[in-house]
Amino acid sequence: MQRKGTTPTTLDLFADEAPQPPATDRIGPQSFVFRGLALPLIDRLLPALEAVLTRAPFRNMVTPGGYTMSVALSSCGQFGWTTDRNGYQYSTIDPQTGQAWPEMPQVFMELARSAAEAAGFADFVPDACLINRYVPGAKLALHQDKDERGYQWPVVSVSLGIPAMFLFGGHARSDATQKVPLFHGDVVVWGGEDRLRYHGVMPIRQAEHPQLGEQRINFTFRKAR
Ligand code: MD6
Ligand code: FE
């Protein structure tokens, strides 16, 4: 609103705008990127992450094909995801420690539930949270998340640290992929008819994040069983 005899200030120009909800990108019929959704929880997420990693440190797993993954993994929740020469599987025990996986922190659960709900999947109760660490150069080949039983539940994926270029494909490996840049605090949800779409991560570019340094941390929540 312009007062008589004055020119509008920046404050005047923006005074009538309602606070904007965080941006959302729709990348499929039932797939969304909620920009910055994790940021309001970051001061609780990082200490909770550290506590989990103390009990279940990152490790570079070997795939059934004999390759050591460039992405380092850990897990929390009732089921952890492991791979070795025998295959991929969900397990209640961390093979590296012989102990149960760390409990899923309350703040992880809150974030997963609110993201799923925002995407139209109310009452999501994930029982598995994979934690992935990407250093520059690490990548994840196109794949489907299909080791779970409950395909009626979405995958919720949280990005922290340095950026990544996420690839979101179709139902065949050869389908075209969308390139989706993901930044610190972004949350991707894919479910329903999109649940089994191929996806991957391009090689991470060298960068430094003020809180997390030269790494990208990704949490993916699923209902495994
Ligand atoms: C991402 N991660 O890092 C997506 N899937 O943005 C995954 O799709 C994924 O990191 C299966 C196992 C590990 C992963
Ligand atoms: Fe995946």
Description:
The structure is a single chain. With 225 residues, this protein is of the alpha+beta class. The protein has one domain (23-222): Sandwich (Jelly Rolls), CATH 2.60.120.590. Helices cover 14% and strands 29% of the residues. It contains three helices and 13 strands. The strands form three sheets. It has a seven-stranded antiparallel β-sheet with strand order 1-2-11-8-13-6-3, with helices on one face. A four-stranded antiparallel β-sheet has the order 7-12-9-10, with no helix packed on it. The protein has a two-stranded antiparallel sheet with strand order 4-5. β1 (24-28) and β2 (31-34) form a beta hairpin. The longest helix has 14 residues, at 42-55. It is globular, with a radius of gyration of 19 Å. Bound molecules: N-[(3-hydroxypyridin-2-yl)carbonyl]glycine (MD6) and fe (iii) ion (FE).
Helix and strand run = HEEHEEEHEEEEEEEE
Could you give the count of β-strands? 13
The low-confidence runs, each spanning 5 or more residues with pLDDT under 50, are 1-5
User: Which percent range fits the helix content?
Assistant: 10-25%
Q: Class by helix and strand content?
A: alpha+beta
Per CATH, the superfamily is: Alpha-ketoglutarate-dependent dioxygenase AlkB-like
Largest sheet: 7 strands, antiparallel
Distance between the termini: 57 Å
What form results from the Cα inertia axes?
globular
Strand content: 25-35%
Bound molecules: N-[(3-hydroxypyridin-2-yl)carbonyl]glycine, fe (iii) ion
Determine the CATH topology. Jelly Rolls
The top-level CATH class is Mainly Beta
The figure for the number of domains is 1
Oligomeric status of the shown chains? single chain
Radius of gyration: 19 Å
